[in-house]
Amino acid sequence: MSIAIPLPLTFIMGAILALSSPVFAQSFPPVIKQKIDAAQKQVKTISMEEYRKIVENPGPALIVDVREPYEYAAGHVPGAINIPRGVIQTEIWKHVGSAEKADVERPIVLQCQSGKRATLAAQTLGELGFTQTSAVIMNLDDWRTSGNPFVK
């Protein structure tokens, strides 16, 4: 048995999945840019400088790298756990308590390669009731080449 998915929804889903690809092209359908821009207006974003301070002294913050596992394995920020954006809504509970007793006020800092996936993941967590999420807007290659902590 197959399920028919409306063509516009198929297009949007495919475009969003393309965001997860490390081969993500700089030009993408306007609908994706609009979705990311709208999400950035809804979530708190932080810069590389602010992120560096958190990485150096995370305190209670949970640092989450939302890239795919193979990207994370190729190198990541120390202290960051890996929860891909596509499964953040189901996997975050393992790190903040059960859904019934989750610490939804725990600071969660989301990071990816450029900030796009992190922004969408922060939006998702906000929709789930998390109140202290931040998306890091930076290029991870710039982070690494600037001499910031990076583990391979």
| Largest sheet data | 5 strands, parallel
For the record, give the distance between the C-alpha atoms at the N and C termini, rounded to a whole number: 44 Å
The helix count comes to 8
Let me know the number of strands.
5
How does the SSE layout of this entry go?
Layout: H1 7-19, H2 30-42, E1 44-46, H3 48-56, E2 62-65, H4 69-73, E3 81-82, H5 88-91, H6 93-96, E4 108-111, H7 116-127, E5 133-136, H8 140-145
Helix pairs in contact: 2-7
Give a summary of the structure in a few sentences:
With 152 residues, the chain is of the alpha/beta class. The chain has helices at 7-19, 30-42, 48-56, 69-73, 88-91, 93-96, 116-127, 140-145, and strands at 44-46, 62-65, 81-82, 108-111, 133-136. 27% of the residues are buried.
Provide structural commentary:
The chain is α/β, with parallel strands linked by helices. The chain contains 8 helices and 5 strands, in the order H-H-E-H-E-H-E-H-H-E-H-E-H. It has helices spanning 7-19, 30-42, 48-56, 69-73, 88-91, 93-96, 116-127, 140-145; strands at residues 44-46, 62-65, 81-82, 108-111, 133-136. The chain has a 5-stranded parallel β-sheet with strand order 1-5-4-2-3. Helix 4 (69-73) links the parallel strand 2 and strand 3. The protein is globular and about 40 Å long. The N and C termini lie far apart (44 Å).
